[in-house]
Every structure is written in C-alpha cells, then in structure tokens.
Design brief:
Number of domains: 1
Shape: globular
Order of helices and strands: HEEEEEEEEEEEEHH
Radius of gyration: 16 Å
Protein name: Cupin domain-containing protein
Helix content: 10-25%
Number of helices: 3
Strand order of the largest sheet: 1-2-3-11-6-9
Strand content: 35-45%
Oligomer: single chain
Distance between the termini: 50 Å
Length: 148
Amino acid sequence: MKPISADEARALGIDTMHHQMDNGERRFRMVSSDGSSYIRTEASGASGWQNSHYHQDVTELYVVQSGWLVYAKLSVNGELTLQHMTQGDALIVKPLTHHNIYMSAFTVTHVVKYGGGSVKTDWFPSPELDKLTKHISESELVRRNHDV
C-alpha cells in the first residue's frame, strides 16, 4: 500500500477542509471536485440548532455515531416534522428537502453528500424552516420525544 500525500490528493480533486463553526461545532471535511464530500461533525459542550437549508442536487446520508439529535424537515405543504435520532440511527435527505439539525452537546455525526455536482455551492438557506425551529428549546425537544 502506497500513501497518497495531501498534494497528490488535491491534484486528483480531493481536498480537506476543517472548521470550527460559530456555534462551537468542529467540522472535518473531505471534499471532491465532483461535489461529493464526507463531514465528521463534533458538537461542542453547548447544544443548538444548525442553519436550515436545502440542496438542489445533493443527497445527504446522516449517521449518528454518539449522542442524539433532532432532524427537522419542512414538507412541500409547509408542515414541520421532527425526528429524534440516537447512536446508530441514519437517514437520507433527498434534494430540495428543507431541513435542519439540532445537535445535543458532544454529539458526533457523519454526513456523506453525493450526487449532483451541477451546482458549485449546493447549499441554500431556508429561512422559513428557521422560523419554525430556531425557537424550539432542548427541553421542548426532549419533552416531545417522550410524548411520542
């Protein structure tokens, strides 16, 4: 087996990008020039909502490694759906689905983005979903999960 250097990978269209988000999350990314990517997200000690968005062409596979999260989805008729996910749970988000994630403290997720590639930056904000989710507290999310 021969190691591939970061420069060789970049020449083949694969790059890495790592960021600490404003909410404290750490995101470790491997990104391909074809629009696909892998992201490991590590939540900080603070819980919180990410930013609601959708993709035109990209499909996402979310996997919860540890902790818990709530997946919020806005239907085409404007109906909000909340899905509680814990360690080992996974889901697929199809293109044009407005969605958001509430990550509890120290949760770790893996997201694989694939398909598309026709749009350079395939991330579009969903202010209508933010209006429905950003005000929901962790205690309310936990209560709703226990009521199910």
